[in-house]
Amino acid sequence: MKLSDIADNAGSRKKRMRVGRGIGSGKGKQSGRGGKGQTARSGVRIKGFEGGQMPMHRRLPKRGFNNIFRVEYAEINLDRLQDAIDAKKLEAGSVVNVEALVKAGVLRRAKAGLRLLGRGELKAKLNIEVHGATKSAIEAVEKAGGSVKILAPVKEEGEAA
After folding, report:
1. Rounded CA gap, 131 and 116, in Å?
2. Residues in contact with 129: Cβ distance below 8 Å, sequence separation at least 6, in sequence order
3. Which CATH number fits domain 74-150: 3.40.605.10, 3.40.228.10, 3.40.50.300, 3.100.10.10?
4. Using one digit for the tens of pLDDT, what is the confidence trace for 25-70?
């Protein structure tokens, strides 16, 4: 191979379409923008405008609201914990908390803490540290010989103590 042989793959670089250069080019006169008016201009177009008819987003009723103070917990079920132990990602008898689960790859991120849910069954003895747990989850862990420690909620930065 020589330096003079090096070339791009066929079709990897496409020429820019030159608009408004006569009807023979195929993109002359209005340059592919249709007729005149607001929609032919750059940067302006009424989103959701339906020709004066009441727009769909105003016809439909509004419900609910978004609580900006809502605390999102990472949730995990007992069967996911058991699967992680079976796959040797977690060790039975060890302390299981958010950091351990993220490090093991069972959870993707910690969010505002961890909440334990009761789906499935747990066979291994685990000491679990969570920010919340259902009654059925706590019973199942204690039945398997483990313990559940409920931690205080995580305080956000700038929040008064």
Report:
1. 8
2. 95, 96, 97, 149, 151
3. 3.100.10.10
4. 999 999 998 888 887 888 777 788 888 899 999 999 999 999 999 9
